[in-house]
Amino acid sequence: MTSDEILAGLYDETLVGNGPAVLELTHEALAQGMLPGTLLFDALIPALEEVGARFERGDFFVPEMLIAGRAMAGAMEVLRPLLADTGVETIGKFLMGTVKGDVHDIGKNLVNIMLEGAGFEVVDLGVQVAPERFVAAIEEHRPDIVGFSAFLTTTMPMFKANLNALEKAGLRDSVIVMVGGAPVTQEYADAVGADGYAADASATVKRAKALLEQRRAKVPA
């Protein structure tokens, strides 16, 4: 296969969520000496962006997003260390976790894949993350953005508890705070004092990029 055929195949197979084919094409591309960054920026990311666009139009639903995300995640397992070795720059660091009391992670995991595919370095704390763990992780990893995920209305109040913990630790102004999850709304995000909200994985990437650009524009060179 030519490099163009491999890139076209990677795009198409990622779009339909064919994980084994994506992995096979990734290995074939690398064996031919193609650069990891080329696979990421010329095939994988465009495919995931198209998945997001189709989701927004109502042509794709959550299952289609999940299988496409998983297909890309398989390729990323191979490419991640190679990308680090070739010095491909990340656009920012995103710390993510599902709040204390909540064990749901499918949505969070999909967001992580989309963020990573878009060029973010993602640190995932998992589920049932207490406020003090978020604080410790922010101090350790120094992320640009922290994301709080909640799937239950009963765990949404943890957003405010987490924000209060950041305030108390003197970290609130050092990090952008995004919130999301099935029951969360823009109004709720505003009420608890979050910097950003997104309704789905595709929107999260766009919002994260926009918030990061806004923050960096305000920082004197």
UniProtKB/TrEMBL annotation:
Q: Which residues form the B12-binding N-terminal domain?
A: 1-91
User: Which BP terms does GO give this entry?
Assistant: homocysteine metabolic process; tetrahydrofolate metabolic process
List keywords of the entry alphabetically.
Cobalt, Metal-binding
Q: Which Gene3D superfamilies match?
A: Cobalamin-binding domain (3.40.50.280), Methionine synthase domain (1.10.1240.10)
Q: Which domain of life is it from?
A: Bacteria
Q: GO CC: one term?
A: cytosol
Q: Name one GO molecular function term.
A: methionine synthase activity
Cross-referenced Pfam families, in alphabetical order? B12-binding, B12-binding_2
Where in the numbering of this chain does the B12-binding domain appear?
A: 91-221
The family classification in the record reads: Belongs to the methylamine corrinoid protein family.
Q: Per its record, how is this protein called by name?
A: Corrinoid protein
Taxonomic source organism? Phycicoccus endophyticus
Its ancestry begins with:
Bacteria, Bacillati, Actinomycetota, Actinomycetes, Micrococcales
